[in-house]
Amino acid sequence: MKPVLRLLIVVLLLNARWLPLQAQAFGQIENKLIYVESSDPGTIDPITSDNLISRRIVEILFGGLYTFNEDRQRIPEFAIGYPDSSADYTSCVVHLRPGQVWSDGHPFTAEDVYFTYLAATNPESDSPNREIFNFIRDMQVVDSLTLRVEFIKPVKAPEKYLMFFIAPKHKFMNTRVTRLLTYCRQPVVSNGGYVFKASSSKEYYFERNPHYQLRGKPKIESISLYIHPDQRTHVPNLVSGLYNLVPYVPPANLADVRNNAQLVVTPYSSNSVQLIALNCQNEFLQFREVRRALNLAIDRASLLSSFYLNNGELLSGPFPPMHRGYNPDVKPYPYAPGTAKQILADLGFRDQDGDGVLEKDGKPFRLRFLVPQILGDTELDRLFKSIAEQIRQIGVDVEIRQMVGSNFDYLIAQRDFDMAYYSWYMQNQASPFPLFVSQEARPGGKNIANFVNPLVDSLLYQAEAQPDLEFQTKILQQLHKIIFQEAPWVFLWHLQHHAAYYRYLKGVSIEPFNFFTTVENWYIDTSGL
Asked: Engineering a disulfide at 488: which of 33, 42, 451, 513 sits with its beta carbon 3.0 to 4.6 angstroms away?
């Protein structure tokens, strides 16, 4: 197809999508889901997607061997029944549903599942979530509809480790999958309820996949994502009818949407923890007591109340209360700036020149605080300034460095910061292994705090290899306590988010670790209007 003709088709598709959106604003409700996000998702394929926005689209476009239903039960999707486990539970056999095809009509086979496993675990792939395959030792294709999976330890519910989304092997040349591939940004072939049709810098458009029947034929005709960086406009535009769903309602707008009789407000887990990573290679931050002093300097309870209206929980370590690694005996750091000052004084920090900044061995205690820049989110900007000011109160100078998107990610990868505001987006019961293991304390690695601790390494490896879930939980809870004491992060909070949508949108099920998983069952019902 000629480039000019392809561009014309994309423009026509997007213009056609915009017309129903305008019609809805004027009171004509059509069988379309229209929602908004604050930034472009980047890549939207099962291998390289790396954020909540892209994860939501992957849920719309792709399916897996197993999925969740509305009651949070794991159910077969492309698999027939549940896996047949071996007598010692170290392997299983999975049978696939016959006759399933991709959206382009190409057969869906065991080769696609095997390819996804190889691509996601390939060190040369841009795969941010390869740890979800940590429990899988190997995978073999028995025939086109049969897989054999070997695990690193006995597992009695193998479907739990087979919940990944599947990519089409025939759309890739090899198992090295990077974000530079066109398919990763425009996955024109998928196996879920909807298929990618068009995108621009401001919109994504998906249509019902006529080949998908596993949850039944998707009830909503099409889904449109509108990208608007200024979050202040999202709720007003929802109320005016430009969208019928807003996945994230800013805390300042919660009262407005709750008082609107046309809207439903649904709370759900943010699927993340918020933290400040402390670069342990910094000449001052390499010392545990200095890191503990920074944790004591921040009034997190007051910040959670002021900026998030207490819609969340303070963290005492890397795990939120919903995670089995959470240790209830470990309490969050209190706000104790006096104690923080005393710790630094005991370590020899003094304000020698009276400028309000502590020095040690003639060097001032100054930190570069790397934070993301999100257009229109003035509350987040105020939060960063409040954190910096509280740290300044104990004699540490803080320079805020605000960066957008890829620039922020690049500086994180290069460890070009002293402190960095960061969110860990968790898969269900995600492993902390890559966040704290020494081998990931490198440029581009996931241990962004450059934290190295032999005892933590030992416990992480034990947890990964431990077949007994109860014993693994005890190891993780021990890790929670040690990481709290070592303080490679300033532990902030785990937030609760809220979605808002019109009451005519029915069958909506938003789960703690998923958003659009059951979207094929959502539908429009205007009979009560």
From this structure: 451
